[in-house]
Amino acid sequence: MPSKIINVKEYTVKAHQxxxxxxxxxxxxxxxxxxxxxxxxGPRPLYCETCRAPQAPKxxxxxxxxxxPRPMTYKSGKDIAG
Length: 82
What we know:
Elements: E1 3-8, E2 16-21, E3 23-28, E4 35-40
């Protein structure tokens, strides 16, 4: 079984390297019905690279930095003491 070393970068965990085990599958594409070969680490794929279902758009990894509101200082004509 071929193995690869990939770089994993996520903002929820510390970035690290992980070794994944991949397999090469020979199968018939469900859409174009052509014999094809694809390397994947999951279950047997159903579609070739050209017919594969569209992926959901990735969300931006940059988190929004929300700041706490700063206290305001107001100037008034009257003194608080009196």
